[in-house]
Design a protein that fits this description.
The chain is mostly helical. It has a domain at about 25-50 and about 60-70. The chain is built from three helices and two strands. The protein has helices at about 25-30, 35-50, 60-70, and strands at about 15-20, 20. About 0% of the residues are buried. This is Rho-GAP domain-containing protein. One of its GO terms (cellular component) is lamellipodium. It holds the Pfam family RhoGAP.
Length: about 70
């Protein structure tokens, strides 16, 4: 039987940094409302229609039908 030993995790949970910096500070410095990587992903999905209904939200069927037919 192999002894796996104790591996220490170096990544800390709950980190507020994204790509090495604070997201709020990055957006304020860049003048953007949405991170560029998310904007590019959304543009690609909308242009090529990769997945039908990707932006759909789950909800109560009766409310969805009411909205659909109003």
């Amino acid at each position: 039987m192999k002894n796996k030993g104790n591996k220490q995790k170096t990544k800390k949970k709950g980190s507020e940094n994204v790509f090495g910096c604070d997201l709020t500070e990055h957006l304020q410095g860049s003048g953007q409302d949405v991170p560029q990587v998310l904007q590019k992903c959304a543009e690609f999905i909308e242009q090529y229609g990769i997945v039908d209904g990707i932006y759909r939200l789950s909800g109560v069927t009766s409310n969805i039908q009411r909205l659909r037919y109003s």
